[in-house]
## 1
Amino acid sequence: MTIHPSTHEAQAERVAETSIGELIGNISNDLSHLFRQEVELAKAELQQEASKAGKAAGMLGAAAFAGYLAVVLLSFAAVFGLANVMDTGWAALIVAAVWAIAGAALFVTGRNRLKTVDPVPHRTVDTLKEDARWLKNPHG
């Protein structure tokens, strides 16, 4: 049984088309997988930054609470100071001053931590740049 040249060429063409189709399919699957991995990395980085922002916001909330207490205690101190010229009023004033110092310390600490929050997912950006370089020059 002999294979005619035209039949042999047709089979070779089908094999070449199948291989190209498979390659395109493989590339498509690989790119989809890579994209999903990049999205997962971005999510993880954003969650980490959101956690830092939440902690800093908690400290700022604590500073606001301490400030509120300072205002309340300073108000009581002023009342007691006027009503009782020395003893109770001055004691309340000292307590209020301590709360004011604590509030200031919490505020400064929270503000400084909030400054360290970075919303850019740097690792994801770096890997996307690397992927783009690879797509432009897969052999280099």
## 2
Amino acid sequence: MIIGRGLLASAMNTKHHRESDHIIFAAGVSNSQETRSSEFDREEKMLTDFIGCQKTFVYFSTCSVDDPELLASPYVAHKKRMEQLVKNSIKHIIFRLPQVVGRSKNTHTLTNYFFNQISSDQSFQVWINAKRSLIDVDDVASICGHLLVNPALENQTINIAPPSSMRVLDIVKIFEDVLGKKAKISLVNSGGDYIIESTLSSIAANELKIKFDQNYYYRVIQKYYGRT
């Protein structure tokens, strides 16, 4: 059973997942800049409506819960609270995700923001020291499906991400190359990095022939934003 209709829910919407012994909760707040309590309350109500079922409950959280720069973020605080609700259920798996890339009209995603700003010749700031991790939504669905068949992972919290992140400035440079257009940016001496422990997802990716190599970020951005 799949809950949700967005980018992640669509990628997970296969016959296998629809008929599995899991409730896959791919709904709720998708904007990491969200501050409205009404949106957080909406996700919490949806979550509690399903969390008491007998099937294993699968929840998607964010790797940003480990980012020291975002500890005060309302979105991160909300995700931490939802994680705790899920952990109180009998059977669950929590998947934490970085920046998920796919075909979406959500203007709040990092990659859609870069694409829109560069395409429309709009200027924006880039934090010199900031790094981010990107992952293809199709790879998320594949890795999740691979991990969900392992009963030993029940009641675990697992990061699904490439083994290394990339400087935001270098991500912007990839967009410039893919779009054939120079970004209008101003550099800010700010930002930082944090380590995402992703051993299990890296092992799964290797078994699925997903290459988290040095060109992974370029291939993902080219796939969804390249000129046709």
## 3
Amino acid sequence: MTDDTPDDKADAAGGSTPSESDDTDRTGPLGDLATAVDERRGATGDDAGTDFDDLFDREDVATVDRDRLWDRLENDDAAAPPRDEEREIREIETDGYCHQCEHFASPPTVACTREGTDILELSALGRFRVADCPVVLEDEALESQ
């Protein structure tokens, strides 16, 4: 009975030792590609231990005071967007409202430029879900009278 260590198996198969091949299995679906890459690295003298830090630039950034940041996030209610429950959301025909409105953004952008009013989604062909649109709310109030 033979005690096959990984080194013995690699040598018997004519391959490299695990320390030379980074202990990776080259028998999977992309094994041929991985082997070709390994061979190219060996031919060009590239080492698996390439210093990847040389490929990136380091930038100094300001230190962030975590306590101050959390205080600001927890106490700054003005920065938090309103929740859907707090908004007047309606589904409208785009031709009757948005496409006729001076606050509709220029194509290809689909947005409302009026502060506080948002187009949330295109719910169906020719229909938008809008939030807090004063034109829609005013028409709705007039219709209910």
